[in-house]
Amino acid sequence: xxxxxxxxxxxALSVIGSLLFAASYYHVHRQTDxxxxxxxxxSSEISAPPTxxxxxxxxxxxxxxxxxxxxxx
Length: 73
Known about the structure:
The protein has two helices and no strands. The radius of gyration is 33 Å and the shape is rod-shaped. It is mostly helical. The longest helix is centred in the middle third of the chain and has 45 residues, at 3-47.
């Protein structure tokens, strides 16, 4: 290899290494922000008081059908 080929190879490896470093740095920080957001959401969901759902009183089917027929006439 000549001196210019060696220099070009070092420059190419430096550029590729820099791009990989920048991409991994960006990716790690995005993942850290994502995990932090998920932890905040999980902690807010846990600390919220449980909601109590009261079941509605169900009417028999025949009663609601006869009621509908009376309203249509």
